[in-house]
From TrEMBL, chains A, B:
DNA-binding region: 42-61
Gene3D superfamilies associated with the record: Tetracycline Repressor, domain 2 (1.10.357.10)
GO molecular function term, any single one: DNA-binding transcription factor activity
Matching SUPFAM superfamilies: Homeodomain-like (SSF46689), Tetracyclin repressor-like, C-terminal domain (SSF48498)
Protein name in UniProt: TetR family transcriptional regulator
Keyword Transmembrane belongs to the record: no
Record domain HTH tetR-type: where: 19-79
Annotated InterPro entries: Homeodomain-like_sf (IPR009057), HTH-type_TetR-like_transc_reg (IPR050109), HTH_TetR (IPR001647), KstR2_TetR_C (IPR041490), Tet_transcr_reg_TetR-rel_C_sf (IPR036271)
Keyword DNA-binding listed: yes
Superkingdom of source: Bacteria
Signal peptide start-end: none
Amino acid sequence: MSTAEETDGGSAPWAEVTPEAARRLLVAAVEAFAERGYHATTTRDIAGRAGMSPAALYIHYKTKEELLHRISRIGHDRALFVLEAAADGGGTAAERLAEAVRSFVRWHAERHTTARVVQYELDALGEEHRTEIVELRRKSDAVVRRIISEGVQAGEFDVPDIPGTTLAVLSLCIDVARWFNAQGSRTPDEVGDLYADLVLRMVAAKR
Amino acid sequence: MSTAEETDGGSAPWAEVTPEAARRLLVAAVEAFAERGYHATTTRDIAGRAGMSPAALYIHYKTKEELLHRISRIGHDRALFVLEAAADGGGTAAERLAEAVRSFVRWHAERHTTARVVQYELDALGEEHRTEIVELRRKSDAVVRRIISEGVQAGEFDVPDIPGTTLAVLSLCIDVARWFNAQGSRTPDEVGDLYADLVLRMVAAKR
DNA sequence: CCCGAACCTGAGCAAGCGCTTAGGGTCCGT
DNA sequence: ACGGACCCTAAGCGCTTGCTCAGGTTCGGG
């Protein structure tokens, strides 16, 4: 199945993963996990996609779960980085919120293969690894909540339930990874713009 | 693991599934699939939760996949029924949209165990069964799109991108099944009210 | 020319998987 | 009293799984 899909989008995808053989395995694992899910993917499938024998996987990674952890960790780091960059970009709260949603959604759409694994295969991680990842997600939550809170205090926003609205905004963005299809009619930029508009409407002060 | 969880919420949960032994198995499968995912769940686990031997499962269901299909089919039927009831309830487009979101979200929160299986284990279905379910999902989409379109035509709503906004509304509601936690601080009713408010803001005409 | 480190493979092990089969209780109508 | 329909289990088959290990290939430095 699958030609090359798109290996994964944009700028320097997994450059930090070395050596090259380990990166090939990781990229293969991302594709396989995204297509079939972690539990339905076999180590033979991953190794095969990377053009290696099953045994080669265990030279670079201790277990299949470690592969998922590495993917999840790097993916969450990047998604959080994108969010924080927008939050620290300056401007009004509305401008910062719009930019945060726009770039966070764009990331989930452009890299939807990675994002699907990162966002929906969390339960397959072991206890320790999962708590580490959950901590990163709390930080994403804090970033969005902070922008919304500041917007409320500045009188830009009208938000009766700040934690609830924060949750809804993040939920909306994350779910893009589930339904986004590269062959579909929308580009990542278009989805980002649409979602930024929708979120601004959700928090807008009544006039 | 797990005491009784809550077997699944409210009114006559799986009454239409007979005989009783088949229902017990199905309820056990819903719990197991929701906790661990379809592929990580074994037939031995399902049978064990239902208090039977592994072989008993195959008297009532031909395969493990058939169990998932039955769950998915019934779940989608119910969710769609809830949506359509609200859509046909009368009133302004805003009232109907609010009620649709409120009850759809409430369903996903109250029955989040079932909903998680229904919404997130679709890929595990076989080709034929999956296309059958996808058809039901298209109907949900059509229901929401229709309300929004009518609201726009009546001048109640201002929605530049009707298909995109429809997608976002459904995505927001469905994702409740992923994060909702019965032990959390919010009741299904509260989440339903919050989300109905947020969605109305998304489509509201500017004043 | 050879050595050792780095990297990879073929073969396969123990365990667990979905599913089957032969047979045994239980309870009904007669 | 008893035959048969119904429902269940113990045992296990054939296969795949995650993972291991002994050994082969490649390559730079001496």
